[in-house]
Amino acid sequence: THPDCSVVLYFQEQEAECLEIIRSERQTSAPPGSPGQPGCLTEWDGVSCWSALPVGQSRVVTCPDILHIFKKSNVLIQRNCTELGWSFPSPPYYNACELEAIGINNDTEAKASYFVTMKVLYTCGYSTSLAALFLAIGIFSCFRKLHCTRNSIHIHFFTSFILRGAAVFIKDAVLFSDESVDHCTMSTVNCKAAIAFFQYSILANFYWLLVEGMYLQTLLLLTFTSDKRYIWWYILIGWGVPMLTVCVWVVTRLQYDNHGCWDDYTSLYWWVIKAPILLAIFGNFLIFLNVTRMLAQKIRSPDISKNYKQQYMRLTKSTLLLIPLFGVHYVVFALFPEHIGVDARLYFELVLGSYQGFLVALLYCFLNGEVQAEIKRNWGKWQSSMESNVFNLATQDFTA
């Protein structure tokens, strides 16, 4: 959400609390200002809530306490309760409450240009990633010799990236397609569903990366055990855990915090999503350390042949590169509140993050020696087949 939405939400919360006081006063004993009780009723003036008072008394309030918007001020704003009702605020809000100096970063046009540039960059990144991922899945699916547990896990990993890219485009289309809509207060079923799908795709992405690390560790630990027996456990972790987490989060938001479009990261219930992501990153980090240790032991072992050493290196180089690459900056940002380092966070998560799918397809598919060999072999067979067909046609023409 845009940082300025915090101002809108602050006043909405203050207004809701004030209206609740007004409703409770109407249901209880007659407050000052009601028939037979001369005075002024509780009133919300758009900025502050003025509690009920008898005629002749006055009440004072301070300026709204909103960080980065209003300067801290000791000026008190007063209103008197007269026989005609509440007097005007004295001094007026615009004199008593001074806004923070508007710098370059707060300039509306500069912000708009910045966000448009960001959107263009991550749209190009996700489009490139989606094209590469679809091509990689097509390659793994078409060639029969590439059908194995390892590549099946890669396909699920690619699919999680495809869902992530699609979720970003869907979220943009639902939340930001209409510029006339107030995004700070929008609360529709469509936008909540888009955010829920987006959170699911993010979780699935992290948990399939965790599955990649777990599978690699299983290969190194259980060399002579069939890996097919674990595939359903991997699927359950990669797709099932994110689904369960998002369902809990949706129910929690519906029950306790059903405000806005659920895209506010200041909510305490955001930890229902954030905690499992941090757990996956931490698990990957431990796997990274353990796999590095086991790989070093196996390569140094005199009992392992050269072919096996090369196989271990081929299996681990991509995953060992991806685990720190996908987790380090998320851990760094997780240590700080959501409003700290917003520009850097957006750049890493949107711009650089949009090209992660392309990088995964490149490492696991396009630069895979096994895939390259299979493509070359089939290309050679196709060329031989074409040459044979041409020769047969030429021979038929000659004999005819």
From TrEMBL:
GO biological process, one term: cell surface receptor signaling pathway
CDD domains noted in UniProt: 7tmB1_GHRHR2 (cd15271)
Keyword vocabulary terms for this entry: Cell membrane, Disulfide bond, G-protein coupled receptor, Glycoprotein, Membrane, Receptor, Transducer, Transmembrane, Transmembrane helix
Origin superkingdom: Eukaryota
GO cellular component labels: plasma membrane
Pfam families reported in the protein's UniProt record: 7tm_2, HRM
Ranges of residues in domain G-protein coupled receptors family 2 profile: 17-101, 118-368
Transmembrane domains' residue ranges: 120-143, 155-176, 206-224, 231-251, 271-291, 319-340, 346-367
Keyword Iron-sulfur found: no
SUPFAM superfamilies reported for this sequence: Family A G protein-coupled receptor-like (SSF81321), Hormone receptor domain (SSF111418)
Location(s) in or outside the cell: Cell membrane
UniProt GO MF annotations: G protein-coupled peptide receptor activity; peptide hormone binding
UniProt keyword Transmembrane present: yes
Membrane topology designation: Multi-pass membrane protein
Listed PANTHER family: GROWTH HORMONE RELEASING HORMONE RECEPTOR 2 PRECURSOR (PTHR45620:SF16), PDF RECEPTOR-LIKE PROTEIN-RELATED (PTHR45620)
Family of the protein in this entry: Belongs to the G-protein coupled receptor 2 family.
Name the record gives this protein: VIPR1 protein
Organism: Pedionomus torquatus
Gene this protein is translated from: Vipr1_2
